[in-house]
Specification:
This protein has 439 residues and is an all-alpha fold. It has one domain: Amino acid/polyamine transporter I. It is built from 21 helices and no strands. Helix 4 crosses helix 15 and helix 6 packs across helix 14. It starts with 14 loop residues before the first helix and ends with a helix.
């Protein structure tokens, strides 16, 4: 039964570190460095984790199948969309100090609250499966059985909760996010033709005879950029960190930086994937291990090793953030204690959701003959469909005068938010229509 009472307040010991840094009486370049370090958090983590194991595979498959002609400029154009969604989520959490699922319950009733949690949980399990696909790829190539690889990955991600406090866990996750840069290194090692990339930004074309299934890959790209879990993670992460309405400017910088980093890395992955164009047959049915082998065959050991490490890291970081979005959302809805500042014994249900979702995904990976790359692409498409109604509710909540006061979405911001929501809803409707026709 849902507990309509306010959840227990989170411990503030670790949360105070953020406020201590941004209010520190210090001048000059040192203050700017410290403030920059402090403001990095939910926005950057959500965006970098958006380039997750499934997303990396999806981007690489897209590049290998269609080249850079259409998808490089398209992915760069997604930055305003992803920033808009994350800014709305950030502002909603910072101003109300309540998570999305709790607000949906209060404003729109149990049906919509349960709908959001159910769809989020479904999408998150699918997403977590793709994270384990990415993480286990390198271990399987080293000769470990899939079952041992899946168990090892589960234990590594589960150990993250042993870190103490939100601040410490956030700093560890940010360090992992830096390793996304390995994909840019691999892209450079494949010796891409800069002229072709520059032409792609102008021409927006795809290779002749490669239009089959193009629409679904476009939708997968957009679905990966606006994943449902990101909406829940951004708002709840901001609350747990201690961001309030007074610190919105810091949160917005964090979200904007994350949006730029996300599309930059995604473009790099498409570039390295395009280096495999024409070298892999039935690209939708092979696993990431085949991509690593192809990179090794074409460009040598180090590009293959770095791609494998980057894929593991992407899956590892996203497993943390995706699982946390489930934990925060379910705990908020039912009124459980839900802070990363709590130890496991203080918030057992919160951490049980975190560990349970990981265990379920790791177990699902052991199902024989899974079409690994296809699952990764389909997961992004499902994410785009499920994110559409979430974005509608997000715009409604952030435009609510009673709820948001002076921080409500208004004027041009409201028009822009509804435009972004309309685009996503339209794309979701097209996807459903095409899927039904194809049945």
């Amino acid at each position: 039964m849902i507990n309509d009472q306010t959840a227990l307040p989170s411990p503030v010991g670790e949360r105070s570190k953020f406020r201590e840094i941004i209010t520190r009486k210090q001048t000059g370049w040192r203050r700017h460095i410290w403030v920059f370090w402090a403001l990095l958090g939910p926005g950057v983590l959500a965006m970098l984790a958006d380039n997750d194991g499934g997303g990396v595979i999806s981007y690489a498959v897209t590049g290998a199948r269609y080249g850079v002609g259409l998808f490089i400029p398209l992915v760069l154009c997604l930055a305003p969309l992803t920033y808009t969604v994350q800014e709305l989520s950030l502002r909603l959490g910072a101003v109300t100090q309540e998570g999305f699922s709790r607000l949906a319950l209060k404003r729109y009733g149990r049906f919509w609250a349960y709908y959001h949690i159910t769809t989020l949980s479904l999408e998150n399990v699918l997403t977590l499966i793709t994270e384990f696909i990415g993480m286990t790829a390198g271990l399987v190539m080293l000769g470990l059985p899939l079952s041992v690889s899946a168990l090892s990955c589960f234990l590594v991600v589960a150990c993250f909760v042993l870190c103490t406090g939100y601040w410490t866990k956030e700093r560890v996750a940010l360090f992992l996010g830096v390793l996304n840069g390995s994909f840019l290194v691999v892209a450079a090692l494949t010796h891409p033709r800069l002229g072709a990339i520059a032409h792609a930004l102008i021409a927006w074309n795809v290779p002749a005879g490669q239009h089959s299934g193009l629409g679904l890959y476009v939708l997968a790209l957009i679905g990966n950029a606006v994943a449902p879990w990101m909406i829940f993670f951004q708002g709840s992460g901001a609350i747990d960190k201690g961001i309030t309405a007074k610190e919105l400017k810091f949160g917005r910088i964090d979200a904007a930086l994350g949006a730029c980093l996300q599309v930059g890395v995604a473009a790099g992955i498409i570039v390295l994937g395009s280096s495999l164009f024409g070298h892999l047959h039935a690209i939708g049915n092979v696993g990431p291990a085949a991509m690593i082998s192809a990179l090794h065959r074409l460009y040598g050991r180090w590009p293959a090793v770095l791609f494998g490490l980057g894929l593991f890291n992407a899956g590892f970081l996203a497993s943390i953030t995706v699982s946390l979005s489930s934990s925060w959302s379910v705990a908020e809805l039912f009124g459980w204690s839900k802070s990363l500042n709590d130890r496991i014994g203080q918030s057992p249900k919160f951490y049980a959701v975190y560990l349970g979702s990981l265990l379920l995904a790791a177990a699902a990976l052991l199902i024989p003959h899974l079409p690994l790359n296809t699952i990764s692409v389909v997961t992004q498409i499902v994410g785009g469909i499920l994110a559409a109604p979430l974005l509608v509710f997000l715009v409604l909540l952030t435009s609510d005068r009673e709820l948001m006061g002076e921080f409500r979405t208004k004027g041009f911001g409201k028009v822009w938010a509804w435009l972004m929501a309309g685009i996503l809803v339209g794309l979701a409707a097209i996807t459903l229509w095409r899927t039904l026709i194809g049945l």
